[in-house]
């Protein structure tokens, strides 16, 4: 295994995206989701990036890449179609100790970006070491079918219970047994079917803790915590993404294979 799997905290850190096309747009949006301070270098922004810039959520640096753009940057993503520019980005970043990822060029990456299956705070990643983004995408889609929004609700429940159970001072072995029994119970099936009273009863029976799922149940996926009348979890799936078109710093367009 070439890459060390790690979760990187980039909240509040300066992150730079070189290239303001659709690929750069995706990278910038993911960085924003993780709380980064994002700057995008490029002559022209996509409409989505332009809206983010107008809202003050990203900084736009108009023009072509320059090494000075790396000053004070924690990590940089090169998303241009110009191999010479990408090479310069990688070389300059390495010299400055800035983490670098060059899209579609694993040999010029300090880190790779895995495909993500996400349900709230639950994140399952798929990485192929840069060998096959297409396979990573296929596996991600399969995971999205297997792990739906009910897992987001369950994780919220587990998070609420964790501190309450640990505070009882029963010891780690006993706590572990309680947590494992709960996740192995039929609580997920009750969540899928919107059977909130039954889910609450399972929690109470196994943990001894009473919870109110009305404050947890609405996860934004059409879940309604309203009793025993079959309000099923609506399993909304993300729409399939088109192949990305990325602009280099000279505004030349070129179709890239989608990369996770």
Secondary structure topology:
Elements (H helix, E strand, L loop, with lengths): L13 E5 L3 H12 L3 E5 L5 H8 L3 E4 L13 E4 L4 H14 L2 E4 L12 E5 L2 E5 L6 H14 L2 H18 L5 H12 L3 H6 L3 H12 L37 E3 L5 E3 L5
Parallel strand pairs: 1-2, 1-4, 2-3, 4-5
Antiparallel strand pairs: 6-7, 8-9
Helix pairs in contact: 5-6, 6-8
Order of helices and strands: EHEHEEHEEEHHHHHEE
Whole-number count of domains: 2
Give Rg in angstroms: 22 Å
Biggest beta sheet attributes:
5 strands, parallel
Mean pLDDT: 85
Strand order of the largest sheet: 3-2-1-4-5
Output the CATH topology of the largest domain. Rossmann fold
The assigned structural class equals alpha/beta
Poorly predicted tracts of residues = 219-230, 236-260
> Please, what is the CATH homologous superfamily of the largest domain?
NAD(P)-binding Rossmann-like Domain
Features:
260 residues, alpha/beta, Rossmann fold, five-stranded parallel sheet, two-stranded antiparallel ribbon, elongated, disordered C terminus
Structural write-up:
- Helix 5 (149-166) runs antiparallel to helix 6 (172-183) and helix 6 (172-183) runs antiparallel to helix 8.
- The two termini are 19 Å apart.
- By secondary structure, the protein is α/β, with parallel strands linked by helices.
- Strand 1, helix 1 and strand 2 form a beta-alpha-beta unit.
- The chain contains 8 helices and 9 strands.
Quick recap:
With 260 residues, the protein is an alpha/beta fold.
